[in-house]
Structure formats: structure tokens, C-alpha cells
Amino acid sequence: MQQLQQLIQEAQPFYKNGHVATYIPALSEVDPKLLAVSLIDGNGHIFQEGDTQQFFTLQSISKVISFIFVCATYGTEHVLQYVDVEPTGDPFNSIIRLESHQPGKPFNPMINAGAITISSMLPGGTVDEKVHNLQSFIAKMVGVHCEVSDEVFTSEWETAYRNRAIAYYLKANGYLQGDVEVALEAYLKQCALLVDVQQLATIALVIANDGYHPLTKEQLFDAKIAKMAKALMLTCGMYNASGKFAAFVGLPAKSGVSGGILCLAMDAQIEELQGTIGIGIFGPAIDEVGNSVAGMKFLEQLSRQYQLSIF
Amino acid sequence: MQQLQQLIQEAQPFYKNGHVATYIPALSEVDPKLLAVSLIDGNGHIFQEGDTQQFFTLQSISKVISFIFVCATYGTEHVLQYVDVEPTGDPFNSIIRLESHQPGKPFNPMINAGAITISSMLPGGTVDEKVHNLQSFIAKMVGVHCEVSDEVFTSEWETAYRNRAIAYYLKANGYLQGDVEVALEAYLKQCALLVDVQQLATIALVIANDGYHPLTKEQLFDAKIAKMAKALMLTCGMYNASGKFAAFVGLPAKSGVSGGILCLAMDAQIEELQGTIGIGIFGPAIDEVGNSVAGMKFLEQLSRQYQLSIF
Amino acid sequence: MQQLQQLIQEAQPFYKNGHVATYIPALSEVDPKLLAVSLIDGNGHIFQEGDTQQFFTLQSISKVISFIFVCATYGTEHVLQYVDVEPTGDPFNSIIRLESHQPGKPFNPMINAGAITISSMLPGGTVDEKVHNLQSFIAKMVGVHCEVSDEVFTSEWETAYRNRAIAYYLKANGYLQGDVEVALEAYLKQCALLVDVQQLATIALVIANDGYHPLTKEQLFDAKIAKMAKALMLTCGMYNASGKFAAFVGLPAKSGVSGGILCLAMDAQIEELQGTIGIGIFGPAIDEVGNSVAGMKFLEQLSRQYQLSIF
Amino acid sequence: MQQLQQLIQEAQPFYKNGHVATYIPALSEVDPKLLAVSLIDGNGHIFQEGDTQQFFTLQSISKVISFIFVCATYGTEHVLQYVDVEPTGDPFNSIIRLESHQPGKPFNPMINAGAITISSMLPGGTVDEKVHNLQSFIAKMVGVHCEVSDEVFTSEWETAYRNRAIAYYLKANGYLQGDVEVALEAYLKQCALLVDVQQLATIALVIANDGYHPLTKEQLFDAKIAKMAKALMLTCGMYNASGKFAAFVGLPAKSGVSGGILCLAMDAQIEELQGTIGIGIFGPAIDEVGNSVAGMKFLEQLSRQYQLSIF
Questions:
Q1: What is the pLDDT of residue A103?
Q2: Residues that bind substrate, according to the entry (chains A, B, C, D) (predicted)?
């Protein structure tokens, strides 16, 4: 695995081109130099390197998972009535597109408007039930219930004015289901779920495998939903750099402002790893659009070296 | 090839859910019932069915080809200074996004703003030179110089007010190169290039093969450019239905309002056809976003039956 | 006063071109045929006609009054840091303009975004204090504390999703002062203040008189503030018909969806009434932009007959 | 007239807060220190001071005049089918509002979109006829045919990309009448008409007098049109500062980027001048929204000193 280690060593210094997210104290205190990578294939082969003990919050990466869970619960047809799956070049927290495109249906579940709508549909009548059900869904993939970081949740909750504006806007237009504050709290708690890179890689592996968990031998969700999630990740998973990531890396991925990236490859061969491969990355220094700088660099080189692009 | 024939027969009646484009007389007079399909693989195996003698204009399909040609001429780095490659859920002829996102750089070459900018960069000082050079580039793929339909060009030229508005807007912001009227005329002439489904399938095959023409054994353009073109087709090739097409069909494709669709599959096996496969479709009845209804239906079933989705 | 009575009789049947506001039960149950008019001049001469006993809620008319009160309390320079005074052709509850014009400063206090910002600045630490202080300010003009309609407030409060979205958006951008829910409740309570046409006419008279109350002989606020209020009423007081109202009627006015209109004339002579004249109107059938149809008709004819246009 | 002279002297140094327009060579070469003022009343009393010999181009001031002329020719009802009269806080050359408000009808004749539409309606089949007819209409007010500055017209024409974009957009949506290039050339020629401050003051005087020329004793256009023009000037005559100008100065006015301002007062008394007064100003250093800095300062002080605000 010498080559992989070298790719990581080469990518790590690029953290200097980014900064840790500063709008939450909990995120701003992280060491920007950190870089952790985990790769796992369908046979359970694992490659790990760097600060893999580090836990970090899912943030926007949770959007893919809650979308899959809600689709698995209610069926994609029902879900698509409330959220479209069209990409958009807008910032993740834009309101303007909601209003200019009647009647306010969120473009896709990867932007905040769509993700909050999805969170409002999480099964369960209370915030606790919704979050618990999502934790249980994730546990089927990673084996344990991920915890919510109270520190991160609390600081986001207190300044969530813009997300609250989006949520009430969605309610006014009939897309957000149930109580607005419940949806918003569930959303911010799912964003504050703590994972490590191996857990991230395992979730990616299940999605890559079309919902089938190769280690537990269970089909956790429908292949159709997995393919939809992969398409969404490719078209709008990397914020406003999604198009360039598709063009130059060519892998389905979803990033979060905590510096995490969930990525996956299909039909790949990366040293001993083969077939579908889940990738989890943590590199907290992010660029101006919100993606881990060192993480992006690593994926770019990895895709090139092992010809992983799906195109 | 009985199965393929059956898929076509099943898809054809869906033309009833669409209408031929009416804004150009030449397009509006076409029989909406028509459906022609051509598939070709790297060994030269061809499957054809339906009204394959019919010629039709490229329209927006030309946007992929001119983008590839301009990138092959000047390098992708140069081209990306003038056009971004980020998808957007906006209608193809929207101006609003240009103005709201400073400084007016077109989001991607698949919307009119981006495509007109690309046409302004076609090598050649005059309209004739630009069009001739593009025809020569296409000829390397299909063997002949495709003709410009004077009838279609003339009627588009006379009513091209909105495209002209976009073009002058791009000029005002420094993205359109050279003379505006030259760029616009070149753009509308490239849209009016006449092809049949087999030519379309052949162009698709070369893109699928990363720029290598398996029949002439020539590398016509760089693999990196081909991958960028495929990513663009997947993220924004099917107008405002691109995201849904990626989710439910999962193939790089580009459609035009004439009812043509250029599509491609990689690592596929469709009856006798194998490996990279180019697909050309003509079904002139289009839906409200601009895609051939019967053509979309055929691709949806084809992808499902032969598991072609790249996801 | 036979002529005035005739103008009212001629205007009343135009109620048929409108409808009572339906989004609040309390408003939707009002008889659309009602029309009440009150005119009062600086000598205390009063003309009244129609259903003048009817009370109705101020709704958007309250925006002028709270703006004047907040300016009188903190000075116009301070207030203009939080709200601009530029007109805009947008619907009163638009969010889009907030986002597209950095950094989200409301265009003027007559649209909801500006009015909610102003309500957040009402003196007082609690909702009750804020509303009480506004009531006291109004009482200096009309002699009594106007009551809040609990019925109207309650039904608006429960469905105020869009206003809440606007309020949190303003908070996110630093314009809304203090607690969002306090500001919103104060805003909706000021909208639910009950008045009759004579009280409306009296308020209008004080504004017309540049803040001087000709009956109590008190200067209630600065002439500079009154002139600013009149300018705002003329440029953006009649929702999306403000420009046409300025062109064809030419009087400062502010309307509410309850069907009320506060209007004023300066240097006028209307039968026995002379000089500055305050006008209060109630005609609950409103047109699609939100103005009382019969009320507008009456003002149009009144302005023409007595040459009241300020232009 | 010592007081007026003093006001001018006090306003002149404020030119330092502005800059001459730089996008046209002809404008950029003017001395920013210049300040010329002319006031004229209905009895022909004239006050003039400063560089009154200086000629300058009308630029946006021409928008009021062409609007009046087209209304006088075809009637306001006809004209209002093509252009609305609602104010908007947008920059004068914005396209975004055209597209977001279906179906693209210009908000008012004071923004470029509305003004170009009005120019397309100027009577006459050719550019020369249109311009000649407008010159003749102006000649009825000022006594002579104003000349077109070829230098200014030529430099604007060569770089009129943004106006051309607006014009073709209007054509695409059916608002612009006749040939686009003819309308645009007529528009830019009307903007390049040369006047001095006394001519400007005389035009203002006729508008102030509701279309009646007090010196030639002719009714040049209907009072209703004049009132509409005054309302437009007040609500949207001073670009994005129109609301503040209405609030703090309170006079109908129209400015141009050449540094000219046409302004008018009614029922005024300014030293020997009485009744309706026309004001012409030239101060070429403009602020960031496009208004003459020294000219605005002078009008602000003039309005305050002589209590000219219509509010």
C-alpha cells in the first residue's frame, strides 16, 4: 500500500490552501493539518492511514443518508413529490431559487432547502424519534449508533437563522411536513452526528454496492434508491464544484463543511482492494465552496492513478 | 436483435405525449410518429431500426461537439476561463443566472450562453471558416462533411432575438470573443447541421471511447476532454430533466429540440454489441423541457434491461 | 356635501371587481359591499358617509405609523441604517430581492421585510411593551388606545410562515434587532390594531400637517419625518400599483388588505373642507394587488374632481 | 439673487465626492469642477449662474421627453400596453427583472428597457425621422433644434452591448416595436442630444406647467401626460436614489450620467421667481448611482431653504 500512502503524503500539505470552518466554535478548533483516509472493499479489505481515530460531524454528508432512508421508508415516487433531483449551480443555502421557480419546490436534496424537507419526512413524530430512527438506519451499515455532538448541535441551533428562514419558507409553500422547529432540530442533529473515516467508508461501500451490505450480507435498501443517490452525489454532491469534480475526478461523492468526504468507486482495483470500494476522508481545512482541500487533492490523484472515473 | 426491436416498438407510441417543436417551420412539419435508432460498437457492429434514412438538425447536440473541438484546439484550461462546467437547473435560454452571478460567466457549455461563447471561440476568422472547421472535425468521426440546412438556419436566424440578447450580454461582460454577429451565425449554423442516427451513434462512439475512433484507429481528441464532455452530458445534457435522467437512466446523453439524442454506454453488452457503444436516436415529438419523448422512453427501458447505468 | 355623497355612491358598485381577503377567516367574513369614507380638515370639519361604525384592522397601513414612531424615537439617520427608502416594484412579501441585493437590507419600510425590521425596533423590551408604546403613540393622534383584534392576530400568527421566513432571513443578515419571535409578534399585533375611518382620517391629517396635530395643537413628530413618510406613501404605499396611483391620483396613500386606505391631501378645497385634509376609507373588497377597489375608485374621482394631485 | 449664488457656491465643492462618467471618452474629458444652474419661471424671469455656455448631452434625461412625446402622439393608454409605470429599486440597466417578471414588460420608461421600448415607438419609419420628430417636439419648447453629438453617439453605439442585449430581449418578448437596430440607434441618438442649462430649465418649466408653455402660450401636450411624467420623475427619476431624493428633496427630477438634472417646482417662490419654476443643472461629477453630486447638493439646499418639497 506504499502508493496510497504516498498519495496521502502528497495531498496533505494542500491543507494550506484552505481554512477550518469558523462559524461553529467546535469546528474552528480542529487542527487544519489533519488528514485521515479509509478505503474498504466488498471483501472487507481495509486500508487506513492518518488520524483515523478522529471523530467529526457528518454535516452535509448526512443529506445523502437521510435521503436514502426516507426513500427506503416511503418510496422514491412519494419523496419526489416534495423534492426534485435536478442539480443547480447555486450556493447550498440560497433562497433565491426557491422563490424564482414556482412553486418553491426544492431543486434537490443536497441543498439545505431539500435536505430540511427530507428531514421533515424522517419517520417519527418527535425529534428524538426521527434522529433515533436515522441512527438505527446508519447502525445497520456501521454496526453502532453514532452519537450526536451536543456541542456542535447547540452552537448551530443558536445561530440557525438562515436555515430557519429556509424552513419557514418551505412550510409556507407546502413542502416541509409537520412542525418546522421539529424538522429543523432533526436536521441540525443529523448534521451533528459523529463518525470516523472507517464508518464513512463503510456507508459509502453500501451505497456503492447498490444497497447491499457485503459484510453483513443484507440488502438494506433498494438498488434504485442507491443509483439515485449516486447520481445526486455526482451531479450535486460537492457544492458549487460538483461539475468540476465530475469532470476531473468522476466519482460520486458528498462533502461536509467539517472536512469529511464520502466517496465511492465501482469496478475498481486499488492495490489489494477490488470491485466496489467505499472511501472515507477527513481533512478539516476546506476551500471557499466548502470542500476539504487535501481530501479533494487526494481523490483527484487517486482517480487519475487508478483510472477510477466512471466516464 | 428481437429484443431491441421490441423496445423500440414499445417506446414509439409515447410520441403522443409530446409535440414537434413549432418555433421553426422546418421542424414543425416533421411527422411526430417517427422513431429511428442506431447503435454501434467498437468492432463496427451496427444495429439500426426505424426511419434511419431521415436527416435532422443537430440543434443543442452540437453543443457537445463544438465544446470538444474548441477544447481540442485551445486546451481545456484556456476554455474554462470563458465557460464554467457547473450544472444548473435553469432553462437552457435563461439570462437571469448570467446577471445574478457576477461577473456573468456562463455556467456550462450546454446552455445557450455557454454554447454561444464556445461558438465564438471556434477556430477561424469568418463564419464560413468556423463552420467549415467544425464540419471537418465532425468529418473525422463520421467520414463526410455534414451539410447546414439553409431552411432551418434561415428561419432561426430571423427570429433569434433571445439568443442575440444573450450574445450581446456575453459580449458586454467580456466572455464572447470577436464579433457578436459572427459568433451567433456560427452558432446557429452549427445547430442546423444535418445528420442521421448512424452518424450520431458514431460521434457518440468516439466520445465513449475517450476520443479514440475504433474504426479509423485514430485518437481524435484527448481522453481528458472526452471525460469532461461525458461529465457535462450526464450533469446537464438533458435540459431541465438532466438530474432525473442521471438518476433513472444513468447514461451520458445530449438532446436537441429537433428530437435527436446522442447517448453512449461504456462496458456494455447489448445483444451482439459489446464494450463502448454509441447510440443515435431521432424521435421528433419532444416534451415540455425539450427532450424526445419516445427517445427518452427507449433509453430508460434499454438502460434497465441491459443494466447500463453508470451508477 | 352632495357631490361627495355622489362620488361615494358611484364608487361603491366597483366592489364587484374585487374580493375580500380570504387568507384570514376574520377578514373573509366581512360584507364586500361595505364602503365607508371619512374626511377631516385642520379646522376639525368632518365629512363622513357610509358604514362609518365599522371597525377594521390596520394591516399594512400600520407600516407607515410604526415607521414614523420609530423614526421619532431614534431619529431617521439611525433608522435608515436598517431600512432603505427606495421603492421597488416587487410584491410586498418577496424574499428574492433581499437575497439578490447584498447585503439583504430591506428596500423600504412599506414591504414586509422593512416593516418587520421596523417592528423589531419599536421601543420596549417585550411584545406587550412594544405594542403598548405604539398604541400610546397612536392615541396621541386619535385620542384612544386602539385595541388589538385577538381573532385576527391569532389566525395570522398561526400561518405566518412566510413572514417568519422573512424575519429569520433579516436576522441572519443582521438587520432585525433583538428576538425574532418578539419582532414578529409585535408586527402581527400592530397589523391587527382596530380602527374606524374617522381615526384613520385623523392619523392622515396629522401626517399631512407635517406632524402637527391641528386639533390638539401638539407637534407629535418632526416635519422631516412626516415628509419622508409622505414620500414613502407616494412611491410605495399602494403595493404594486403605487406608480399608477401616483400617476393617476397623485396623493400620498397607504392601503391594507383589510380594505382600509389612509390618504391625505395638502392645500386642498373639497366643499367645506380646506387646507390639509386627512382621508380614511374602508372598502373590504380588494383587487389582486391588495388595494380596496371601491376605495381606489373613490380617490381617483375625488382627485380629479377637486384637482388634488400633488403634480 | 445673492442667496441663490451662495447656494451654488456652497454646492460646487461637493463635485469632489464624484467622478465624471468614464465609459465614453467625450464625457470623461469634461472638467469635473463645472457647475451651471438655470431657473426660469412662468413670467420668463431667469436666474443663471456658472458655466451656462456649456453644452452637454441629455443622456437619461431624454427618457422623460421621449415618453411625453410618444404619449402625446399615441395616447397614454396605448403606451401603457408596452411599458408600465411602476418604480423599481434596480439599477437602470438591469435585465434580471425583465426575466423574473413575466412576461418581460418593462417596469417604467425611466429604466433603459422601458426607454428603448419608448424609442421604438417614436413616430417615424427611419432613425432619422424618429430623431427629427423628437427634435421638432423639443424645439416647440426650447425654440431650436438640438443637435446630436456625433462624437458621443458614435462612442456609445460602438460599445452598446448591454443596451443591445436589452433591446433584443424586449423584441423576443414582443414589447419592442419595429426593427431593433433602428430603435437602438434612435435611443442612443436621443441620449446624445446637446442642450444647455437654460434649455433644460425651459423644458422643465413646460412639464411643471402641465404641458402649457407660458412663454409661447401654447398647450404642447395634455396635462394628464405631464402629471404622469412628474409622477415618474418623482418615483424613479434619480436612478437608485429616487426614494431618498423624494424623501429629502421632494421634487420631480430626472438626471443623466452626463451630469445634467432636469428638475421642477410648483407653487414656489424663489427670490424674484414665482409659481411654476423649471430648473436646469449641469455638474458633470456624478456619484456611484449616476447623479450629479454638486447638482444634488444644490437641489437639497434649495428645497430646504425655500420649502419646495411637494410633501
A1: 60
A2: 60, 112, 156, 163, 187, 239, 257
Rounded to whole angstroms, how far apart are CA atoms B287 and B296? Answer: 10
> Cβ separation of C169 and A180 shorter than 8 Å?
no
DSSP state of C94: -
Q: What is the pLDDT of residue A88?
A: 74
Q: Active-site residue B306, yes or no? A: no
- Across the interface, which of C101, C227, C240 has its CB nearest the CB of D247? C227
C-alpha C194/C-alpha C203 separation (Å) is 13
Q: What is the mean pLDDT of chain D?
A: 93
d(CA C11, CA C3): 12
The closest of B87, B40, B266, B302 to A309, measured between CA atoms, is B266
- Taking Cα atoms as reference points, which of D221, D286, D293, D234 lies closest to residue D264? D234
Shortest Cα distance from C126 to chain D (angstroms)? 31
Q: Provide the shortest C-alpha distance from residue B242 to chain D (in Å).
A: 23
Q: How far apart, in whole angstroms, are the C-alpha atoms of residue A29 and residue A261?
A: 19
- Nearest-angstrom CA–CA distance, B171 and A80: 39
- Total residue count of chain C as it appears in this document: 311
Section A171-191 average pLDDT: 96
3-state helix, strand, coil in chain D (%, to 5): 50, 15, 35
Distance (Å, whole) CA B229 – CA A35: 32
Give pTM, 2 decimals. 0.93
Among B60, B155, B242, B258, the active-site one is B60
Q: B172 to chain D: nearest residue by CA?
A: D161
Q: Is B63 in the active site?
A: yes
Residue in chain C closest to D241 (alpha carbons) equals C86
Among the listed residues D63, D3, D49, the one whose alpha carbon sits nearest the alpha carbon of residue D193? D63
Angstrom CA distances, A147 to A121, A260, A267, stand at: 21, 16, 33
Residue of B nearest to A265 (CA): B311
Q: Is C225 left (phi over 0), alpha (psi -120 to 50) or beta?
A: alpha
pLDDT-derived band of residue A102, with 50, 70 and 90 as boundaries?
very low
Number of A–B residue contacts, CB under 8 Å: 108
Distance separating alpha carbons of residues D122 and D70, to the nearest angstrom: 6
Instruction: Kindly report the nearest CA distance between residue D66 and chain B, in angstroms.
Output: 24
D94 touches chain B (CB under 8 A): yes
pLDDT at D60 over 90: yes
Q: Is the pLDDT of residue A289 over 80?
A: yes
**What are chain D's domains?**
2-59+194-305 (3.40.710.10), 61-191 (3.40.710.10)
Q: Does A250 touch chain B (CB under 8 A)?
A: yes
Is A112 annotated in a binding site? The answer is: yes
pLDDT at B98 (0 to 100): 55
Residue D193 DSSP class: B
Measured from the Cβ of residue D189, the count of other Cβ atoms closer than 10 Å reads 24
CA C172/CA A159 separation, integer angstroms: 8
Q: Which helix (H) or strand (E) holds A124?
A: none
Q: Which helix (H) or strand (E) holds C211?
A: none
Of the candidates A231, A222, A212, which has an alpha carbon nearest to the alpha carbon of residue A109? A231
Contacts with D108 from chain C: Cβ below 8 Å: 89, 243
Name chain A's partners: 3 or more CB pairs within 8 A: B, C
Please confirm, yes or no, whether A175 is among the known catalytic residues. Answer: no
Instruction: Check if the beta carbon of residue C263 is closer than 8 Å to that of residue C281.
Output: yes
Distance CA D166, CA A121 (A): 44
Q: What is the pLDDT of residues A199-233, one digit of tens each?
A: 999 999 999 999 999 999 999 999 999 999 999 99
Whether A280 and A197 have beta carbons less than 8 Å apart is answered as: yes
Sign of dihedral through CA atoms B209, B214, B215, B217? positive
Indicate the SS3 state at residue B193.
strand
Whether the ω angle into residue D103 lies within 30 degrees of 0, i.e. cis, is yes
**Least Cα separation, residue C277 to chain D (angstroms):** 13
